[in-house]
Design a protein that fits this description.
The protein is α+β, with helices and mostly antiparallel strands and about 170 residues long. The protein has one domain. It is built from six helices and six strands, in the order αββααβααβββα. The protein has helices at about 5-15, 40-45, 60-65, 75-95, 105-120, 150-169; strands spanning about 20-25, 30-35, 75, 125-130, 135-140, 145-150. Strands 3-2-1-4-5-6 form a six-stranded antiparallel sheet. Strand 1 (about 20-25) and strand 2 form a beta hairpin. Helix 5 (about 105-120) crosses helix 6 (about 150-169). The two termini are about 25 Å apart.
Length: about 170
């Protein structure tokens, strides 16, 4: 699955959990997210009605698989595919796909994912907070790079890509 789709699905999950600052790393085929704002495992285990993914209850096996003992959330390919399917279903119910705000973490992560799809990094790490986004990645030949984005710059890139998609239709 392309990074753009994966990161949007993960972003929707983070939005439903109320996470606004996090660190995400690509760990093999999985993504690992750490944040001080993540609910503790004991809290999620004792509250079955906790809004998990896209404000719907996820199967207990998915919940157990995603929240790790170290307090991080692991998004393996199967879980990301499940999140993506949930997101598609939710977006289909919306009146217009264009009604989604460009300031949403999921949309901004999708834009960053498109950028990563073009770079084709071997591994990467994203540090996200309200002030900006730091993307560190390693290319296939082992070179390390770092890029800093403001939320405004990512928002502009999101709007620009939407405009290009609208002109193609």
């Amino acid at each position: 699955m392309p990074h753009a789709k994966s990161l949007r699905a993960i972003g929707q999950s983070l939005e439903s959990l109320g996470i606004v600052a996090f660190v995400m790393e690509k760990n093999g085929r999985s993504y690992v997210v750490r944040s001080e704002d993540l609910p503790k495992i004991s809290e999620t285990a004792t509250k079955p009605s906790t809004p998990m993914v896209l404000e719907t209850s996820s199967p207990s096996s998915m919940r157990a698989h995603s929240f790790q003992e170290d307090g991080s959330v692991r998004y393996d390919p199967n879980y990301v595919s499940w999140l993506d399917a949930q997101g598609r279903r939710k977006r289909r119910k919306r009146f217009s796909a264009q009604s989604t705000g460009t300031a949403r973490v999921s949309q901004l992560l999708r834009t960053l994912g498109k950028h990563l799809d073009q770079l084709e990094p071997h591994s990467f790490n994203i540090s996200w907070n309200q002030d900006g986004i730091c993307l560190e990645y390693e290319s296939g030949d082992g070179q390390r790079f770092q890029e800093i984005f403001t939320v405004g710059k990512l928002r502009d890139l999101t709007v620009r890509s939407r405009f290009r998609r609208a002109r193609r239709r």
